[in-house]
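Example 9 (inverse folding). The structure is encoded as follows.
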């Protein structure tokens, strides 16, 4: 079973108002071991929540949002998503991602080219339609029960 990991740091704008935004760097991650999901890892200082992401030498790296790779692909072309994560293209060169949490909604703007590059690299690791070959039901169940 391949253990390929695709990771890409991309710039994003956290939209604070119609005239104000904060620039930050977000890490996109894709793991062949979890072939249906992509992860957005935000620096902890941009979240109201406790850090939930992977643990590094200095503790949790930030706050991680996990959603379907298929949702990312769809959101590059058309408004997509009904739940906590929603995506929509914006002016051709950008993609807006809305993250819905009990504390409120965060709106982020990403460059469409960076997201397309990441998605392409994830498809090199696990081609679309072949995700089932990388699924490990026992591992997935163990993660759910942690």
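The amino acid assigned to each position is listed next.
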């Amino acid at each position: 079973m391949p253990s390929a990991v695709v990771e890409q740091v991309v710039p994003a704008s956290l939209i604070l108002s119609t005239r104000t935004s904060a620039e930050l760097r977000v890490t996109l991650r894709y793991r062949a071991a979890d072939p249906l999901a992509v992860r957005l890892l935000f620096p902890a200082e941009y979240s109201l929540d406790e850090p939930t992401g992977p643990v590094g030498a200095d503790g949790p790296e930030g706050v991680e949002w996990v959603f379907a790779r298929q949702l990312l692909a769809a959101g590059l072309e058309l408004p997509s998503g009904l739940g906590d994560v929603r995506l929509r293209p914006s002016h051709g060169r950008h993609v807006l991602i809305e993250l819905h949490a009990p504390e409120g909604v965060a709106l982020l703007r990403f460059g469409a080219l960076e997201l397309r590059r990441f998605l392409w690299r994830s498809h090199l690791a696990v081609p679309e339609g072949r995700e089932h070959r990388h699924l490990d039901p026992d591992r997935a169940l163990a993660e759910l029960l942690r």
